[in-house]
Amino acid sequence: MASYDLLITNVVVVNHDGESKAQDIGIANGLISQIGSDLDRAGAKKLVDGTGKVAYPGVVDGHQHWGIYNPLDQDTVSESKASAQGGVTTAITYMRTGQYYLNKGGSYLDFFPEVLELSANRAYVDYGFHLAPMSKQHISEIPELISQFGVVSFKIFMFYGSHGLHGRSSDQSSFLMIPEDEQYNLAHFEFVMRGIQKAREQFGEKADSISLSLHCETAEIMTAYTKIVEEEGKYKGLEAYHHSRPPHSEGLAITIASYLAHETNLANINLLHLSSFKAVDAALRMAEAFPQINFRREVTIGHLLADIHNSPGVGGKVNPPLRPREDVEALWNFIKKGQIDWVVSDHACCKDEYKFGEPREDVFLAKSGFGGTEYLLSGLVTEGLKRGLSRSDIARLSSHAPASRYGLKNKGAIVVGFDADIALVDENQNYVIRAEDSESSQEYTPFEGFTMTAKVTDTFVRGHHVFENGKIVGTPQGKYQYRA
């Protein structure tokens, strides 16, 4: 007789390569031990009846920001709950030195242990970190970050050196907290790439999991257009912010980043949160120009659900901006063609009192970023299925592809031997998004009033039932993921 810690019965089991109906999933010691029809109920310590539900691989949300606007230890609790609410079982959050986050500069070998300490034993989902090399010292530390801490993914913010985080140009030296004789510019980006490629050569067996992600916007373009938009006063709200950071700013930055990757022989490049037709078009052109580079293209659920007109107020301010509806539809078309690799939330909880300036409706006074991980899987299922995506497409976009890229070797699929990370979805449950129903500490959402036609009912992290019948249950079970 088989023995299970947990047995999930009678579900549709979905993976990136297909699906099977009326299956049971046996779980033991945090791993999937057996999948089949009519598994032995008598050997199960706990039974969960999944009749009428679809079992998706737990979402690997490869783009979050814990601790950017709120203390990291607090965000780790509340925003990991929001993650579990959305079927996310692993969250990888971006972290850097400088203002926001821990508001510290200096060595990552001093900084990152504090990050790990503040987040330990607080998360309801598994988690990891991407790190941004902000200084020459950080580049030299890349091998130690890989070997000592299992960090294999890194980031460049291409506009940070000469454009303000929230939309106006500003002196960035104090913001970045880097040495006075250094600059965060194209030359630094090149040296980051060279440092990461050197590490890939050093850690040969891990090279496929070592990658660089880029936030691609061009500071000079945005500075000029922000001035024009503010002086003309023709546009307001999210529409003004869209025009102040135009799509061709993304395209130009993508082109520059891609050529630098070519110059430095860095093969693994992730182009983050592509928000527009022009951005993805530029990314596809660069893939054709440099076929030796293993590009990955990311979009967010925010850019797939919201646009500059259907999102209320300026709570949807984000970098890069929400776009007009024609860009939203273009992104979905790229997804249907298989030209987008994964979908993430870019979750950055910013509470109401901190998000908005005075006057509240001035988009240039608002902070950038918002939450959304709690709507990631339900949003993908709601919009994706009606647009012709298969469940397997959704599993690839939400779980398998990011897990594979970011070195999460035991996650991203419901197969025997993998971590028992599973999200149960009722694809016939309509609900209206209300900020008050979210587990996030953010009191508003740019998706307020949107109707979803699918809902995550249960989330399992390594077999632990952390979200049950629509409620967070138990204690934090999340573990830091030492990758690759």
Feature tags:
single chain, 484 residues, alpha/beta, TIM Barrel, five-stranded parallel sheet, 14 helices, 19 strands, 21% strand
**Radius of gyration over all CA atoms, rounded:** 21 Å
Tally of helical runs = 14
Beta-sheet strand percentage? 15-25%
Can you say what the CATH homologous superfamily is? Metal-dependent hydrolases
**So, CATH architecture?**
Alpha-Beta Barrel
Q: What sort of overall outline do the alpha carbons produce when their principal axes are compared?
A: globular
**Top-tier CATH class:** Alpha Beta
Spans of 5+ residues with little confidence (pLDDT < 50)? Answer: none
Q: How many β-strand stretches?
A: 19
Helix percentage: 25-40%
Category from helices, strands and their pairing:
alpha/beta
Q: Report on the biggest sheet.
A: 9 strands, mixed
Mean pLDDT across all residues, rounded? Answer: 96
**Number of spatially distinct domains:** 1
How far is the N terminus from the C terminus?
Answer: 35 Å
Under CATH, the topology can be stated as TIM Barrel
SSE arrangement:
Blueprint lengths: L5 E10 L2 E11 L2 E6 L10 E3 L4 E4 L1 E6 L7 H14 L2 E8 L12 H12 L6 E6 L4 H14 L3 E5 L15 H4 L9 H17 L8 E5 L3 H14 L4 H8 L2 H18 L3 E4 L5 H13 L4 E7 H5 L19 H12 L5 E3 L7 H4 L20 H11 L4 H15 L16 E5 L4 E2 L18 E2 L2 E7 L2 E5 L2 E2 L12
Parallel strand pairs: 1-4, 1-5, 6-7, 7-8, 9-10, 10-11, 11-12, 12-13
Antiparallel strand pairs: 1-2, 2-3, 5-14, 14-17, 15-16, 17-18, 18-19
Summarize the structure.
By secondary structure, the chain is of the alpha/beta class. It has a single domain, classed as Alpha-Beta Barrel (TIM Barrel). The protein is built from 14 helices and 19 strands.
